[in-house]
Design a protein that fits this description.
Elements (H helix, E strand, L loop, with lengths): L1 H14 L22 E7 L10 E11 L9 E10 L15 E11 L3 E6 L16 E8 L4 E16 L1 E9 L8 E5 L9 E4 L3 E2 L3 E8 L6 E8 L2 E10 L6 E7 L6 E6 L8 E6 L1 E2 L21 E5 L15 E6 L3 E5 L7 E7 L2 E2 L5 E2 L4 E9 L8 E2 L3 E2 L5 E6 L7 E13 L12 E5 L1
Parallel strand pairs: 11-18
Antiparallel strand pairs: 1-2, 1-8, 2-3, 3-6, 4-5, 4-7, 7-8, 7-9, 10-12, 12-15, 13-14, 13-16, 16-17, 19-21, 20-29, 21-29, 22-28, 22-30, 23-24, 25-27, 25-29, 26-28
Keywords: Signal
Protein name: Secreted protein
Organism: Streptomyces avermitilis (strain ATCC 31267 / DSM 46492 / JCM 5070 / NBRC 14893 / NCIMB 12804 / NRRL 8165 / MA-4680)
Length: about 450
């Protein structure tokens, strides 16, 4: 008799994990950056031991994001809140606090489709007998892969309870997808231009050919090799085809004595986004000296484009588990020296790996942002420009640059404020990522 009484008591307690739902329909929401609370029909299956049949009713929920205007490659944090599970404790027995762990899915639509897994902490207020079941929130992340409008709608969810027994109450959307609660608009990213060229020689007589080799062009693309006189293109041109690895190699005959550099580019005309160079080149004037005259020559030797760093380790400030937020610090100062001469500018870019931590935990690379700063040393022919503040990510971003010009060169100091946006409830421990800087 005592055993049967205990079974009945357990069934009553566990039955309280089921959602006592009221009937209702769906409420559509307009697309926009502001989160909209929506209602949708839900089918919930209580634990078998509760002895309660499946319940069809209405769930009220909303979706929030930490960034309504991301770029492709960014990571967006999603919060799925079940505002009103339309649930109540069907028994007179009170339920204790912190026995409920929710999980669920957020459905993506529009420019990007799929589902985002979200989870919530094991935390809830006590539920009195016959009391209303509490609301709960779940979070997760996804990486933006396509530009355009992306819709987010609440999906299926599950309530796991750890009280006497470990039990689940799965709830599914009866007519998926549920109404859209949030819409974000993703912008396309401007890819970093890593095209580069080198010359077989830095000078030659009029009519000499100079070997041009290049890398990181589009495979199979037709690439134009051309002379430059300051910022203007000369009539000296040739074309080559990039191989399957994006490499090019060809000879350019240079006749124009005013030539100061050589460029290579895809398309019908020079473009900063699809070009490389100019690489410095000098045409040696071999005009015969008139009788009774002496030709006096000297040479200014072109140097190199180089960079150095003040150190190779950055320690960002710690953040608290459960709160998350921005872990901040400063980039080790980078010094760029451009002693090449000629008309070529330069670009300093960076990309970062995911931050790995204990037990395989990670923080996505797109969570690292920077605010670049670039100072030009007095007397330098060029003036550097800091890159735009924003996410660094694995795709990379520009830290600083100097434009092409009639005369370029100088010394530059590059810094940046760093901030790593650490999601709440990221497992405690140390995390490390590698930021690689490339100067071209």
């Amino acid at each position: 008799m005592a055993a049967r009484t205990r079974r009945h008591r357990w069934a009553a307690v566990l039955g309280a994990t089921a959602l006592a739902l009221a009937g209702g329909g769906a409420l559509a929401c307009p697309a926009g950056a502001v989160s909209q609370q929506v209602d949708f029909a839900t089918h919930c299956i209580p634990p078998a031991i509760a002895g309660i049949p499946p319940i069809d009713g209405t769930t009220a929920a909303k979706i929030d994001v930490d960034n309504t205007a991301p770029k492709v490659g960014d990571t967006v944090t999603v919060t799925y809140t079940v505002v009103t599970p339309a649930a109540s404790n069907p028994t007179d027995l009170a339920l204790p606090a912190d026995i409920m762990t929710p999980t669920g899915k957020v459905t993506l639509g529009g420019a990007q489709t799929g589902a985002v897994t979200v989870t919530g902490p094991k935390k809830n207020d006590p539920v009195p007998g016959k009391g209303a079941f509490p609301s709960f929130s779940m979070t997760g992340t996804f990486t933006v892969t396509s530009p355009g409008a992306i819709t987010l709608a609440p999906g299926d969810y599950n309530i796991h309870t750890s009280y006497i027994l470990e039990l689940d109450t799965p709830c599914t959307v009866i007519s998926p997808p549920a109404p859209v609660s949030q819409t974000i608009t993703a912008a396309d990213t401007t890819p970093v231009n890593n095209r580069a060229i080198t010359l077989g020689s830095a000078s030659g007589k009029p009519g000499d050919g100079v070997t041009v080799t290049g890398s990181n062009f589009t495979a199979g693309a037709t690439v134009t090799l051309a002379g430059r006189a300051g910022t203007a293109q000369t009539a000296d041109t040739a074309t080559v085809t990039a191989n399957a690895q994006g490499a090019v190699s060809g000879s350019l005959v240079v006749n124009d004595k005013a030539t100061t550099g050589v460029v290579a580019y895809e398309g019908s005309a020079w473009s900063d986004t699809k070009g490389a160079g100019p690489a410095a080149y000098v045409v040696i004037d071999d005009t015969p000296v008139p009788a009774g005259s002496q030709k006096i020559n000297t040479k200014v030797t072109a140097g190199t484009l180089s960079m150095s760093q003040a150190g190779d380790t950055v320690d960002l400030a710690a953040v608290d588990f459960g709160k998350g937020g921005f872990s901040r610090g400063s980039l080790q100062t980078v010094t760029v020296k451009d002693f090449r001469g000629g008309a070529a500018g330069w670009s300093l870019t960076g990309k970062v790996t995911d931050f790995t931590g204990p037990g395989g935990a990670k923080i996505d690379a797109a969570k690292l942002g920077w605010t670049p700063v670039c100072l030009t040393k007095a007397g330098s022919p060029s003036t550097c420009a800091a890159g735009s503040p924003g996410s660094v990510g694995s795709a990379g971003a520009t830290l600083a640059s100097a434009p092409n010009g009639t005369v370029t060169g100088g010394e530059f100091t590059v810094d940046a404020r760093l901030s790593l946006n650490v999601p709440a409830f990221t497992p405690a421990g140390s995390y490390s990522g590698v930021l690689t800087l490339t100067l071209t």
